[in-house]
Amino acid sequence: MVRLSKPTLIIPPSTQTFIMTDSLAIARDSILAPAGLAESDLDRLLGSLTSASIDAADIYFQYSRLQSWVLEDGILKDGSFSIEQGAGLRAVSGEKTGFAYSDELQFPALAQAAEAARAIARSGQDARVQVGKAPIEHRLYEPLNPIESLADQDKVALLQRVDAEARRQDPRVREVVASLVAVQDTVMVLADDGTLAADVRPLVRLSVSVIAEDKGRREQGASGGGARADLGYFLLEDRALSFAREAVRLALTNLEAVDAPAGSMTVVLGAGWPGVLLHEAVGHGLEGDFNRKGSSVFAGRIGERVAAKGVTVVDDGTLPGRRGSLNMDDEGTPTQNTTLIEDGILRGYMQDKLNARLTGCASTGNGRRESYAHLPMPRMTNTYMLAGNRDPEEIIASVDKGLYAVNFGGGQVDITSGKFVFSASEAYVIEKGKLGRPVKGATLIGNGPDVLTRVSMIGNDLKLDEGVGTCGKEGQSVPVGVGQPTLKIDSLTVGGTSK
Amino acid sequence: MPTATIEDTGERLARLQETIDDLLKEAKRQGASAAEASVGSSSGLDVTVRLGEVETVEHTRDNGLGVTVYFGHRKGTASTSDLSPAAVRDAVQAACAIAQHTQEDRCAHLAAPELLATEIPDLDLCHPWAIEVEEAIALAVACEDAARGYDPRIVNSEGASLSTGFGIHVAGNSNGFMGGYPTTRHSLNCAVIGQEGEVMQRDYWWTTARAASDLEPGRAVGERAAERTVSRLGARRLSTCEAPVLFRAEVAAGLLRSLVSAINGTSIYRRSSFLLDQVGEPIFPDFVRIYEEPHLLRGLASAPYDGDGVVTRPKDLVTAGVLQTYLLDTYSGCRLGLQTTGNAGGVRNLRIQMGAKDRQAMLRELGTGLFVTELMGHGVNAVTGDYSRGAAGFWVENGEIQYPVEEITIAGNLKEMFAGLQAVGNDCDFPGSTRTGSWLIDRMTIAGE
Ligand SMILES: [Zn+2]
Predict the structure, then answer these.
(1) Torsion region of B61: left, alpha or beta (phi above 0 gives left; psi -120 to 50 gives alpha)
(2) What angle do CA A4, A6, A9 make, to 5 degrees?
(3) Residue contact B445–A262, C-beta within 8 A
(4) Where would you find the membrane-spanning parts of this chain (chain B) (predicted)?
(5) Is residue A86 a contact partner of residue A372, using CB atoms and an 8 Å limit?
(6) Are B231 and B198 in contact (CB under 8 A)?
(7) How many angstroms separate the CA atoms of A348 and A286, rounded?
(8) Residue B50 touches chain A, beta carbons under 8 Å
C-alpha cells in the first residue's frame, strides 16, 4: 500500500563525502552514552540473546527526533516536537522469532528484554559473541540533523511563503494547509554475525493541500515532496513554491472534471508517481516473506515471463538522497539495486536476513522496520521501471480512445489473488490520439501477474516521484519511492461512473 | 507482560497522575499560561503461529507522554517515549520553544472548565488476561487447525495470532481536569489460503474484546476464515453495468466511517467535506437513525471523556434521516462558533438502527445485483463524496448467490448513495466498535470487463 500523491522530476541533492564512522560515533554519543552502555555491555547483551539453538540474534537501537509545523488559514497554528528511543532485541531459531523491546536503554531493562526474546529457543548456554565491524559502503546522504538545518522562524516563514504563493495563484483558492516535517533517525544494529553498523538518516517533507471553490463546487488539490536531506532542499530551485502552484493547478483542474469512464480500456500512465502501479502490482508480491510462505501469486515463478518484453523493474535503495534510500537496511545490510523483472522475465525477490537464510540466498538489503518496537521484514525501497525509447507524445497519439492518468492517491494489493488497485486523482480522456477533458478521480483495478504483460509502449521519460510515498505492511509504515516512464497498458479496468 | 501488571494498577495509575502533575507544574514554571498533558503505559503479548508452528513471540511494552503548552493563544506540543523526570522537563521545554514560533489563534485554548469530566465512571474496560506464552500458542494453533481442517481446498496459511494488551492512560489539564483508567484488549485472528486450479484466494476472520471470555471461540474464528476463503474460489469478472449493491455488514461499516469523517469538525471548518451546511437537512431516507454510545460497558471504543477532557455523551448523529450534529472538539467547535460535542478523538461505539431483515431476506431484497464483501483502495473523495473502490463479492440473481466475482470496481457518490439507502439488515456479524447490518444501495456503476 502506498499513500499520497504527486510526480515530477526530483533532483537528488548532491551528496558530499564524509567519513562513515561518523554515523557510528553519532549513534554511540546519542544512544549508548546517555544510557551508560559500554561496548562490553553490548557483548553481554548479544551473548545472552544467543545460545546454541539460536540461529541469529540482533539488537536494534534507535533514537529518533521529529519536528513538524502546520500552517492553516494563513496562521502557523501548530508545531510539535517528539523524541522516540528504544531498543528491539530479536532471537531467531529456524522459522521462530522471539522479540522484545524496551524504551528504557539501561542495561537491566535490556537484559530483561533479551531474556524474554530468547525464550523462543530451548534453553542453553549463553554463546560468546564478539561484535564486529561495519560493512557499510554507501554515502547516500549526510548524517545531518535536518531539524537544526534551518532556524525555526525561517521554517515558519517558508510555510507562509507557500501559503501566499498558493493564494495568489487564483481567487478561487479558499483553504490552504501547508506542513513541514523534519526527522533525524539514528539507528545502530548489532548482530551475532558480526554486524556492528549505524546509520544517521535525515528525512524532510513538505506538503500543501488546497481547496478551490467555484459556483458552489469545491475540489481539493494536494502536492508536496521530500528527501533525505536538510530543509535547504525546499529552498533550492523554487521547490516549495512549486508545490504550492502544483496543488492549486490540481484543484483548479478538478473543478473542470467530468465523470470518469467505466470499464476496460487502454490506459496511459504518466511518468513518476504513477509508478505506484509497480509497487502494488508486482512490488509487494515479490517480497521474500510472501514467497517463502507461498502466499504470493508470484511464488515459484522465477525465470517465468510476467511482463512484456522491454519491461525491466528494479528496487534500488542506493539512489542518493531519495526518500526510499538507505545506506544500510535495518539489519545492517548495505542496500543494493535489485533487478526484480528483466526484459519481462521474473528475476528475483527482495530479501531480509531471515527469509534469505530460510530460502538459501543472500539478503538484498531490504530488511526494514518501522521502529525498534517492530520486527524487520522484506520491504521495498525505491521501486521503478527503466526507461524505454518511445516519445510520451507518440504514446498518447497512438491511443484512439482511452484514459491518461498522471496523478494518483495511493493503492492496495491482495498479494495472494494478485488483484491490486490504485486511485487516479488527475486524469484525462484520450480521444483519437488527443487529450480531452479532465475526469474525476477513479480507481483502477488489475491483476498483478498479467497487467505488465499488457504494456505495449514504454516512454523514454523515466521519472521518480517527489518523495512523498509511505508504504504500509502488517501495520508498519516505512518511507518508499516509486518511479516509471510513461507507459501504455492495452487494457485496464477504470472505475468511473460514465459508460 | 499483563500478568505482572494486574496487582499494581492502582499504584501505576497514581504514578502516572504524578507525572501529569509534574508536567503541568513544569509548564507553569516555564511560563505557560495553560497546559494539557497525557501519559500512557502499556504492555502485552503477541504470538503468531503458522502451519502449526510458532512463528513469532513478541513482548510489547510502550510508554509515552505528550504535553501541549499555551502562551495565551499560541501553543506548542511535544512528546516522548521517555517518562523520566528529566524527559518531563525536556518535553515541556521543547513545547515552549515551539510556542515561541506559532501564531495567535483565538481558538487555541483548553476546554471550558464546566465541560470537563469530574467523575470517571467505571465502564468495565479492564480485564487482564493472565495467559502464559505456551497457552497463547496452543489457542492460536487450535484456531489455525480449525481453519486448515475445514476444507481440502485450504492449502496454505498465513497463520493465526493471539494478542493481549493492558494499558493505563492518564490525562489532565490546568483547568483542573485529571482522569485516568486502565483498559485491556485481546484478539485472535486467522488468515488462510485456498486454491482451486492455479488460482489462490486468501481471507481471514478475527475476534476482539475487552475480556478474554467475550472472545469468539478459536475454532469458530478458524472455520469462519476458511469458509470465507473457500467461498471466493472460482471468482469471475463482471461486464460493466449498473446494478443495485448490497454491502456486507463489515464493509457497510466503512460507509458509516465515511459519514463520520465528513461530519468531523475539522473537515467542516476546512470546507473539505461533501456534507457542509447539512445539519438539519435530510441526508438519508427517513427510516435511518445513526447514533453513538460512548458509555457502553466493555465497549471497544468506550470512553468517559474525550481527548480534551470533555465529558462524552450518547447522542444521535442522524435521526429520521436528518443530520443532527457535526462531531466537534474544542478547537473545531470554536472555529465554527459552536460548542464541542465531546468528540475530540472521534466517535465512540457508532451504531445504526438495524432493520428486521436477515441476510437471506436482504439478498432477496437485492434481487439481481452485486453483494459486495470486500473493498480495496482509498478511492473516496471526502470533498466531493465521489466514491470509486476496487471490489470483490458475489453476483446475485433473484435473491440467490450465483458465483463469486473479483477485479471489479463500484462507483457512485456518497451523497447519492446515502440518499439511495433502501434497507439496513439485522445481520451484524463482525467484531469491533461499529455495529451495522448490511446496506442495500439502490444503484451504482460496476466496472469490469
Ligand atoms: Zn506498499
Answers:
(1) beta
(2) 140
(3) yes
(4) none
(5) yes
(6) no
(7) 7
(8) yes
Rounded CA separation B324/B314 (Å): 13
- How sure is the predictor about A131, in pLDDT bands with cuts at 50, 70 and 90? low
Q: Please state, in angstroms and rounded to a whole number, the distance separating the CA atoms of residues A180 and A67.
A: 8
ipTM of the complex: 0.94
Of residues A138 and B148, which shows the higher confidence score? B148
A349 alpha carbon to ligand 1 midpoint, in Å? 15
Residue B89 CB: number of other CB atoms within 10 A? 15
pLDDT at residue B7, rounded to an integer:
58
Residues with Cβ < 8 Å from B191, sequence gap 6 or more? B157, B158, B159, B160, B202, B203, B204, B225
Q: Residue written as cell 447519492? A: B416
What mean pLDDT value characterizes chain A?
Answer: 92
Residues 337-366 of B with CB under 8 A from A: none
Which helix (H) or strand (E) segment is A410 a member of?
Answer: strand A401-413
Contact A439, A423 (CB under 8 A): no
Gap from B107 CA to chain A (nearest CA, Å): 10
Q: Which residues of A touch B232 (CB under 8 A)?
A: 417
Alpha-carbon distance of B337 to B269, in angstroms, equals 10
Cβ neighbours of residue A183 under 8 Å, at least 6 residues apart? Answer: A64, A65, A66, A67, A146, A147, A201, A202, A203, A204
pLDDT at position B3? 45
Half-sphere exposure for A48 (CA within 13 Å, toward CB) = 16
Q: Choose, out of B57, B109, B331, B406, the residue to mutate when testing the contact with A (most A CBs < 10 Å).
A: B57
What are the structural domains of chain B?
6-230 (3.30.2290.10), 235-448 (no CATH)
The answer to whether residue B4 neighbours chain A at the CB level (below 8 Å) is no
For chain A, the farthest-separated pair of C-alpha atoms sits apart, in whole angstroms, at 76
What cell does A330 get?
535495518
Contact, B19 vs B65, CB < 8 A? yes
For residue A82, give the nearest of B80, B99, B449 by CB distance. Answer: B80
If you measure from the C-alpha of residue B439 to the centroid of ligand 1, how many angstroms do you get, rounded to a whole number? 30
Cβ-Cβ contacts under 8 Å, B276 against chain A: 218
Cβ contacts of B77 on chain A, cutoff 8 Å:
78-81
In the predicted structure, residue B4 carries a pLDDT above the cut 60:
no
| Neighbour count for residue B197 (Cβ, 10 Å) | 7
Kindly list the residues from chain A whose CB atom is less than 8 angstroms away from the CB atom of residue B96: none
Tell me the CA–centroid distance for residue A452 and ligand 1, in Å.
18
Going by C-alpha positions, the residue among A177, A246, A258, A256 that lies closest to residue A215 is A256
CA of A3 from ligand 1 middle (Å) equals 8
Mean pLDDT on B310-315 = 98
Q: From ligand 1's centre to the CA of A415, what distance in Å? A: 11
- Does B130 touch chain A if contact means CB atoms closer than 8 Å? no
Give the range among A111-120, A327-336, A447-456, B6-15 with minimum mean pLDDT: B6-15
Pick from A83, A89, A289, A304 the residue to mutate for testing the B interface (most B CBs within 10 Å).
Answer: A83
